[in-house]
Amino acid sequence: MDVFGRVSGMRLKGRGGAVNALRPPRTVLCSYCKAAPSADAARTLAAREGSWTVTWHARTCPHYIADRILTGKES
After folding, report:
1. By percentage, how much of the chain surpasses pLDDT 70?
2. Alpha carbon distance 75, 31 (integer Å)
3. Nearest CA to 56 among 67, 48, 47?
4. How many Å apart are CA 67 and CA 33, to the nearest integer?
5. Considering Cα of 74, then 59, then 25, then 28, what sign does the dihedral take?
6. d(CA 14, CA 71)
């Protein structure tokens, strides 16, 4: 995975046994902190059937901190 959240060469098994390439992510900027991809930004990933998103945050963004708490990464 590169710094922009792109994955190269990954394949997932799809319905009916067909193998499909993973679609590129949809990039989302946090509505609170408005962070963009950079060396000091953090990202969260979300996946649903058929698609996934990369959301960028400032490391001090309350949305990013909440995501980390919900996933057990912060106490």
Report:
1. 69
2. 24
3. 67
4. 14
5. positive
6. 27
Contacts from 53-58 at CB under 8 Å and sequence distance 24+?
53/25, 53/26, 53/27, 53/28, 54/4, 54/5, 54/25, 54/26, 54/27, 54/28, 55/28, 55/29, 55/30, 56/27, 56/28, 56/29, 56/30, 57/30, 57/32, 57/33, 58/30, 58/33
Query: E strand or H helix at 63, and its extent?
Result: helix 62-70
| β-strands 51-58, 26-29 pairing | parallel
pLDDT, one tens digit per residue, over 32-59 is 999 888 877 888 888 888 788 889 999 8
Beta-bridge partner residues of 27: 54
